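Page 37, top half.
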Amino acid sequence: MRRKVSLILLALAVFFAALSPLLRWYAFPRVAKVPADQYQDMVLEAKDATLLDYGTMTAKKVPKVTVVQTLKGNVEASEKIERTAGRDVVVWDSLSYVQGPDGEMVSKLPERYIFDAHTQEPVHATGESVDGEPVTREGIEFKWPFLTEKRDYEYFDAQTRTSAPIHYEGTRDFRGVDVYYFEQTIPWTKVEFPKILPVEGVTPDSIAKSGTTRWYTTVRRFWVEPVTGAPVYGEEIHREELRGGTLLGDRDKVTAFSGHVKMREDYIDYTVDLVKSNRTVVLLMTTYLPWGFLILGAGLLTLSLYLEARSRRPRDPARADAVEPDPVSA
C-alpha cells in the first residue's frame, strides 16, 4: 500500500515540477494581454503656464492649462485586423484635449494606436494615424511591455511623428510601489499644426501661407511599474513656439505654450491602486504559482521517497539449520 501511494506522489511531483516552467514560460506569454475593450482617461495640469492668445497673437501667463487624455479600445477594429494579422491585436483610439483656464479648447490631437496585445509591439495596419494622417510607428507608446526590463526603449512621439529612445534612469519608490524611471528629451523640432485650431477661420493652410511655422520640444518622464508595464505617473516639460512669417509681424518667434504638465492628484491615487491590483494578477502567473508548484513538487518527491524507503523491509535470513526432509520409503 505504501509503495502505491509513493508512486502516486512521485507522479504528482513530476506533474507539478513540469507545470512550473510551463506556466511561466509557455502559458503566461500567451495568456497575459491588454484587453481589447479597455477604456481609461487621465487629467493632467500645467499650473502657471504660458499660452498664446490667437486673437492678439501674444503669449500670456495663465493660472492653469488642463490636458485630458482618453484611451478607448476599439473592439470592432481590432477584430477586423486580427483576421489578417494572425495574432491578438488592440486598437486604441486616443485623444489629447488641451483647454485653457476658461475651459475653451486650445488644441486636440486624435490618434489611432494599433499594437500586439501580448508584447505591445506596434502592428502596422490601415487606420494607424495621428491627427488623421497615416503614420508608421516604431517602438512603444502609452504602455511598456509586461515585465519591463532595465533598458532603453524606442518611444513614439505624436507631435513629431517619429520615435526616439526613452532612457532607463534607475529604480525608484513611488508611493510604496517599486518603479522604473524613464526619461526622453525631444529637441526643438518643426512640427505640423493641428488640423483644428481654437480660432474660427484660422486653418493650418492659412498659417502655412503666412510662412509661420510651429516648433516643439519636450522632456517626457514616466514612472513605470515593471511587472505590468503600466505607468503609475507621468509628466512633461512642454514648450511650443510659432516662428517667422507675416503672422508674427516683426517678431522672430512667440511662445504658443509653455508649462510643466503633471498628472492630477486624484488620478495618481486611482492609477496607483489599479496598477497594484493588476500587478498581483501578473505575479500570480510569473512568480507565486510557478515557485509554489516547484516547491510543492519537491515536497511531494521527498514524501514519495520516504514512503518508498519505509515500504522496503529486509528479508528474513535463510535458516542455516534447515533439515532436508527424509525421503519417502517405497
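Page 37, bottom half:
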Amino acid sequence: MRKRSHRARAVAAAVAAVVLGAAGCDAVGGDSPGGRAHSARPSPAPSWNTRPDSVAAVGDSITRGFDACSVLSDCPEVSWATGSSPGVDSLAVRLLGRERAATHSWNFAVTGARMADLPAQMAQAAAHRPQLVTVMAGANDACRDSTAAMTSVADFRARFEEALHTLRETLPKAQVYVASVPDLKRLWSQGRTNALGKQIWKLGICPSMLGDADSFSAAAILRRDTVQDRVEAYNAVLKDVCAKDRSCRFDGNAVHDFRFGTAQLSHWDWFHPSTDGQARLAEIAYRTVTAKSR
C-alpha cells in the first residue's frame, strides 16, 4: 500500500508539473505543445518626414500675406507658408530650397476664409498631391461683427474634421502642420497704441475684438474676454483633432503664445502680419515641422 501510494503521488506531481508548465508558457505568450500563442499588436505610427518635398497651404488672409506689401491687397510672395521673398524665408523655401519651392509649393488660402471654407481648399490642395499641407485658420471665425456671430466651437470642430477627412480620402499619408489661432487680444493691446491703427480699425476690422478700442467699460472687457475664450477653445479643438490623426502636427500654441509687437503688424491695418511677422510665422512652422519627434 505504501509503495502504491508513493507511486500515485509521484505520478500526480509529474502531471501537475506538466500542466502548470504549459499554463505558464501560454501566460507569457510562449510556445506550447499544441502550437504558438499569438497576440495582436497595433501597427506602428508612420514616421514623420522632416524634409517633405512638396508643400500646399490652406487658410485665410494671413497665409495670403494680405496687407503686408500694400493696402487692401494679397501679397503671396511674403506668405509664411509658400512665399518666395528672401525677407521671409518661407517654410517652403526652408524645406525645399528656393528653386524647388517655385514649382512644388501651392497656396490655396483665401482672404476672408473661415473654417467652413477649409474642406474645399483642402480638396484643391489634395489634387496636387503634396507631402505636407499647412493649415492656418480660425481668426475670421472669431473676428465677427459681434460675439454672437462667432463660429460655435462645435461647428468649428466639425468643419476641421471634415477638412482632414477630405484630405485623407485622397492622400492618407500626407503630413499636416496646423498653426494655432493668433492671440487677438494681444493684437488689440499692441495695435491700440497707434492712433492711426485705431482709426483704421473703425472701418470694421475684427469688430468683435477691436471695436471701441479705447473703452474699458464692463461691456467692452466682457466682449474682448469672450473672443479670447473662443480663440482658446478653437485652439483646443485644433490640438485635439490633430492628435487623432497620426500624420498631423499642431504647433503646441506657439503662434498663439508668440509675444509679437507692432513691428510684426502691418502698418496698413495694424492687424495682419507685416513682412517681419510673416518671417516669424515661418520660423515657428519650420521648427515644428523639422522637430525629430513631438
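Margin note: The first strand starts at residue 31 and ends at 32.
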